[in-house]
Structures are given as C-alpha cells and as structure tokens.
Design goal:
Shape: globular
Strand content: 15-25%
Oligomer: single chain
Helix content: 25-40%
Largest sheet: 8 strands, parallel, barrel
Radius of gyration: 16 Å
Order of helices and strands: EHEHEEHHEHEEHEHH
Structural class: alpha/beta
C-alpha cells in the first residue's frame, strides 16, 4: 500500500503528474495543502478528473466529502486530539458512508492506545525526512501492534523492504516521489516492490 502525500506548496505541472500517477495505479492520494482555503481546495479538486476523486483523502475541510465523491478524510494529530472524544458529534454533518478515516501519529504508544478504529494510521518519522530538514528518523518497530500502520518519513524505493520488516503495512511518501527527477518513475519503482512481494505483505 502506497499513500502519496501532496506537496505542501503546488509544484509545476502538479495536476498533470498526479493524473499520470493515478493512471499508473495510485490508489491513496492525501490532499494536504495547509495554505489553501476551502475555495482553493475546490479549485484544485475541480482540476482533477472526476474518475479519480474516489482515490483522494482530504486533510482539511472534511466537509468536502459532502460535495465530492472522495475516498475519505484524514485527522492530523491535533485535530484527532481535539475531536476524537466526541466523534459522533463531529461526524454528524458529514456524509461518511463508504469513506475511509485515517489519522497521523508520532508515537507508537499513543497509536497503540488509541480507542478509535481508524482504517489506517500514518506513523512518522520512521527514517529521516527527505522533505523536512532536521526531522530525524526514529526507526519505530510496530510488529507488536495489531493495527494497519503505514510508515512515513524518509521512504524511498530503496528502504521499502526495511520498513516492512519493522511491521508496517505500507508506506507514506512525499519527498521520495515529488522531489525525485521523475515522480512517475519513482512511483513505479515503489509499486514494483509491491507487485513482486504481494504475497508476503
């Protein structure tokens, strides 16, 4: 499982590259653009072909699931802390039928203790970040946690095998794709790992 996180700031030809990644099989695109307004989120989604909307998970403006046929919503750490004690109230105005719910964590003990059943969890930083300088990897080993955990931070095609040995069920990537010379080629190289090892993961 590959989760691709959007670059924080738009890059040249981003939508065009994103369409190519979807065509190559990208199934989880996390739309994380902290500087965009609600309208700018809509403008971005309107540029993406509708047939791919059901592969997009939004980090901000969760109410977008009511207006677009999106894959799901994601809680960043603070938002989860703010709302998880009263999820019924939070989800009441959202049309969540068939949608995924995921969240970010930075401590495996907090993740293990979380009582809310997320579809999957992003845990970082496993390795030192490519896109955030000074964000040192912690090499978390999650083999003892019976939850679907996706490892993030410093993931490239060269360390995917190592991240699975640590107990992760997939990888979350940002810099490993967007900072590469050819994002589509980098994605295909990661995807090749999953095709080759699909019976072992």
């Amino acid at each position: 499982m590959i989760v691709l996180i959007a670059p924080e700031e738009d890059i040249a030809n981003e939508i065009e590259i994103l369409h190519q990644l979807f065509e190559e099989g990208l199934a989880y695109f996390h739309f994380r653009k902290p500087n965009k307004s609600y309208q700018e989120h809509c403008d971005y989604l309107d540029l993406v072909e509708k047939k791919y909307h059901n592969r997009i998970v939004v980090h901000y403006f969760h109410e977008l699931v009511n207006a677009y046929n999106l894959k799901g919503i994601h809680f960043q750490e603070q938002k989860r802390i703010d709302h998880i004690d009263n999820p019924g109230q939070y989800f009441k105005p959202l049309d969540m039928y068939g949608k995924t719910i995921s969240s970010s964590f930075h401590d495996p003990e907090v993740l293990a203790a979380c009582g809310f059943e997320f579809d999957y969890h992003l845990l970082s930083p496993v390795f030192s970040s490519i896109s955030k300088k000074g964000y040192e990897g912690k090499g978390f080993d999650v083999n003892s946690i019976e939850k679907r955990i996706i490892g993030m931070g410093g993931v490239t095609k060269d360390n995917i095998a190592e991240i699975h040995q640590l107990g992760f069920k997939g990888v979350g990537v940002l810099g490993g794709i967007w900072n590469s010379v050819s994002p589509v080629t980098a994605f295909k190289a990661m995807q090749a790992y999953y095709s080759k090892n699909k019976n072992n993961i």
